[in-house]
Amino acid sequence: MSKLPQEHKFIDLSDYGRPIAKIIATSLKNTAATPVHVTIGFIISGLIAVYCILTGYYWIAGFFLILKSILDAADGELARIKQKPSYTGRYLDSVADILLNAIIFLTIWYVTDTSLWVCITAFIGLQLQGTLYNYYYVILRNKFNGDRTSRVFENKTPIALDGEKQQHVDVLFKLYKFLYGAFDKAIYVLDPRAGYGKPLPKWFMTSVSTFGLGFQLLIISVMLILGFKAFILPFFLCYTVMVLIFVEIRKMFFK
Q1: Does residue 106 contact residue 183 with C-beta atoms inside 8 Å?
Q2: How close are the terminal C-alpha atoms of the chain, in Å?
Q3: Domain coordinates of the chain in residue numbers?
Q4: Closest alpha carbon to 177 in 54, 91, 55, 52
Q5: Are the beta carbons of 92 and 39 closer than 8 angstroms?
Q6: Which residues make Cβ contacts (< 8 Å) with residue 112, sequence separation at least 6?
Q7: Using CA atoms, how far apart are residues 138 and 187, in angstroms rounded to an integer?
Q8: DSSP line for 181-235
Q9: What is the spatial distance between Cα 19 and Cα 22, in angstroms, rounded to a whole number?
Q10: d(Cα 80, Cα 148) in Å, to the nearest integer?
Q11: Rounded to an integer, what distance in angstroms lies between the CA atom of residue 249 and that of residue 19?
């Protein structure tokens, strides 16, 4: 199942790895590989990137960060190709993402002279950016009958789908709520009526997709390769102001 029907798809700047992700997923279609195996693959890729940042191999770090982004898309593609969506995979993916983001930012802080407070607030900003993008995107998916394994409001443990265990869903959902709950609430407070407004146009969603994790990892990779590692955390801290700008645009023009 596609995330959005064809007529509502927009250019997602964070989803540049989708073509390769589809190739990977197609190659795994008739194998024993599961989406969870692919998720484990992107976790390993992210940890290799962290090691390379620590040891100064920034080109290689950039490669593995982008590979992580591609594999992050491939797990969902494999689930759709095999027609086996799962809440286990959905929450494992999200939990892995936020933990890797924290490790990556702490690693960048460690190899630069950036203040720890800048690191912490930049990480909070990074997560708010990604949460706003996901919030608007999931609203679209629910309005237009796209992929529904993600929900606008993650308030209640979902019932396990065929092929997964309820206890796995329960544990991962609790982890998800612990790690993401505050960010979800913050974005909802900023824009509580987004789900009741006009459908968000493609150009707006393309702009907000710069908050997507894939695009964020691309920015980090490019800045590492260009020798701008000291500016990575301040950049994400400053770019967080766009959260407020996008919310105000949504409220003003798409009520």
Answers
A1: no
A2: 29
A3: 6-253
A4: 91
A5: yes
A6: 229, 230, 232, 233
A7: 13
A8: HHHHHHHHHH-TTGGGSPPPPHHHHHHHGGGSHHHHHHHHHHHHHTT-GGGHHHH
A9: 5
A10: 12
A11: 31
Could you tell me if 179 and 130 are in contact, meaning their C-beta atoms sit under 8 angstroms apart? no
Instruction: Please give the structure tokens belonging to residue 114.
Output: 């950036």
In this structure, what token pair is assigned to residue 159? 């019932």
Contact 4, 144 (CB under 8 A): yes
Residue with tokens 């990480």, as numbered in its chain:
123
Tokens for 37, please give them: 């195996």
Residue 158, token pair as written in the block: 């979902």
- Summarised one tens digit per residue, pLDDT across range 92-151 is 999 999 999 999 999 999 999 899 999 999 999 999 999 999 999 988 887 766 554 455
For the stretch 226-253, pLDDT in tens is 999 999 999 999 999 999 999 999 999 9
6 or 213, greater pLDDT: 213
Question: Residue 165 is encoded by which pair of tokens?
Answer: 């265990």
CATH number of 6-253: 1.20.120.1760
Q: How many residues does the chain have?
A: 255
Q: Does the global pTM surpass 0.70?
A: yes
Contact of 232 with 220, CB cutoff 8 Å: yes
What's the token pair of residue 179? 């790690």
Structure tokens given for 39: 């998720």
| Strand blocks (E) in 134-189 | none
Give the type of residue at 87.
Answer: Y
